[in-house]
Each structure stands twice: as C-alpha cells, then as structure tokens.
Amino acid sequence: MSKSFKITVIFIVIGILISIAVNLNIGFMNLSFSDFFSSNSGHSQIAQLRINRVLVMMLAGISIPTSGFLLQEYFQNPLAGPSVLGITSVASLSVAFYIFFSKDVILPEFLQNSFLSFSAIAGSLGLMFILLAFSGRFQDKSFLIIFGFLISALAGAVVSILQFYAENQSLKNYILWSFGANSQVSTNQVMVLSGFVLIGLLLSFKTIKPLIGNSLGTAYAQSLGVNLKQLKFFIIIASSLLSASVTAFLGPILFIGIVVPHFCRMLFNPAKLWQQWILNMLLGILIMEFFSILSESTQFPLNVITSLFGIPVILTMMLSKNK
After folding, report:
1. Closest-CA residue to 52 (of 87, 27, 89)
2. Is the Cβ–Cβ distance between 102 and 115 less than 8 Å?
3. What 3 state SS string does 88-114 have?
C-alpha cells in the first residue's frame, strides 16, 4: 500500500471523525456528553435519534458510492450510477406503490421496514436485469445512459399519476419520505438497513478482482478465468441492494453515486480498484455526514442538498470530457 494512499486515507478519516462529532452536536437542543451514554437522561431519546442519524449517513455513504463505483467500472462509463441509470427512480416507484396501496394493511414496524426495503430492491433488480439485457444490443454503452433517463422519466410519470389519485395521508407519507428525512430513522430501521448493506458489501467484495480483469477487455478477462456471467449477476445484485435499500429509508439520494467515484479517481490511481473501493466508502461517509450537517443547519431536505451539489459537478465532468 503506497504512502500517498495512506496519507489520503488518514486525512479523510480525520475529516469523518470531525464531521461525526459536529453531527452529534447539531440540532435544536444542546446535549451533554452523558446524554449519549445514559439511558436515564431526560435527553436520551434525542441523543439516540442523533446517533441513528450519524449511523444511517455512514451506511448511505458506504452504499451509494459503492453502487456507483461498481456500475462505472462494469460499464466503463464515468456517468453510470444508480440515479442516472434509473435504479433510484424505479426504487422510488416501488416504494410509492407500497406506500399508496398498503395503507389498509396493519403490520408491525419491523415488518413494515422490511417490506419497504424489499419493494425498493425488487424494483431496482428488475430494472438492472432489463439494463443488462439491453446492454448487449447497444454497441455504444452511452445509449444505456439515455435508456436510464427514459426509465427515470417514465417512473416519475407513474409516480405523479399515483400522487394525483392518492389519499391525503398516503400522499403526505410519500412526500415526507421523498424529502430524505434522515433525522427520523429509528433503531430498527438502522438494523434492517445494516443487514442489506452488509450483504451488498459481501457481494461487492467478490466483484473487485473480476472487475480488474474485466477492465482489461472481455477476451483478456476470459483468458484469466473470469466468469463474466457470474460477475454480471453479482454486479446486479450488489448495486441494486446497496442503492435501493438506502433509497427505501432515506428517499432518493441523487448523483452521489456518480460524483464520489469521480473524486476518488482524482485522488488516487484509477487502476487500483481495491484502493478505489476503500476511498469511495470513506469519502462517501465524509460527504454524507457533511450533507447531514447542512440539512440540519438549513432545514433543507437531504435530496435537495445532494442535487444542488451533484448537478454542477456532473455538468463540469461532461464539459471537461467533451474538451
């Protein structure tokens, strides 16, 4: 492991620790150090909410950049990502169907959280299989980006129709979910999300080595013994699990899956995929914790902040690539 990589990691970790400390201490009420460790404290519930907020931002910071990183390396396109390829939009559509049509079904909170995740993951998996089925027909893989935009537009149109006919309470629940209310995530939700993220990371681990061979070309990858069908399957499952599970609990977190891998390639050698994966997770945590601080300070929805940050960066990437 090179010295420059170690130094980069150290600086990012220091930034993460500072952002976590700030995130725990930001809010309408000032908390003492003991509030975070004593269950008898009058402010222990508020402290637990802030701990959950920090944890869920860490999980989102790990998941979404990893999903974007896997997709970009597989499609060999720096603009590939869960939001651009339509995965986030279809996951949002699946959640909308669940929220609007399950209002009369009474389930325990833990099961509600699980079904919310399963609906988002099922939708995103379906889209990923469609994308990969079409990938063989498109000689230029950039057409997949256009295909993803079309899917996103279609999903948005269907969600609008559902909102038009939805009852007031269901509509309110969906709007609140779409804002990305990271401060309202419960301990049970963090546990469910952690399980999905862990499975996604284990599958991601199995894809890194084959992706190194795949980056050298299909023929060369096959000569190295890379199982391309298995690689495709793991990429589908891992990226869908990671992005859709976060979308289920935090709403659509847009463009982070594109921007973070781009920054990581600027920080370190893009060919070193193991190091790139580590950087994606660490930098993702740092950025998401910072966005959480901005969201709590300004009261802006989390998905608005990520869009305001991501869109200019992506436009800059497209302009520089065109030049």
Report:
1. 27
2. yes
3. HHHHHHHHHHHHHHCCCCCCCHHHHHH
Instruction: Give the count of beta carbons closer than 10 Å to the beta carbon of residue 95.
Output: 25
Q: Looking at domain 3-322, does it have CATH number 1.20.210.10?
A: no
User: What is the DSSP secondary-structure string of 217-246?
Assistant: -HHHHHHTT--HHHHHHHHHHHHHHHHHHH
Four-point Cα dihedral 16, 17, 21, 27, nearest 10: 10
Q: What is the C-alpha to C-alpha distance for residues 258 and 269, in angstroms, rounded to an integer?
A: 17
Strand locations in the chain (E): none
195-248 residue pLDDT tens:
999 999 999 999 999 998 887 777 777 777 788 888 888 888 898 889 988 888
Interatomic CA distance for residues 46 and 36, integer angstroms: 9
- Per residue in 32-90, pLDDT (tens digit) is 766 677 666 667 788 888 899 999 999 999 999 999 999 999 888 888 888 877 888 89
Tokens 């497209």 label which residue? 318
Alpha carbons 77 and 322: distance in angstroms, whole number: 14
Q: Average pLDDT, stretch 24-31?
A: 80
CA dist 172 and 54 (Å) reads 25
Each domain of the chain, given as residue ranges in start order, spans 3-322
8-state DSSP, 184: G
CB 34 within 8 A of CB 8: no
Q: How many CB atoms lie within 10 A of CB 313?
A: 15
Residue 183: predicted pLDDT:
62
CA dihedral for 16, 22, 26, 32, sign (positive or negative):
positive
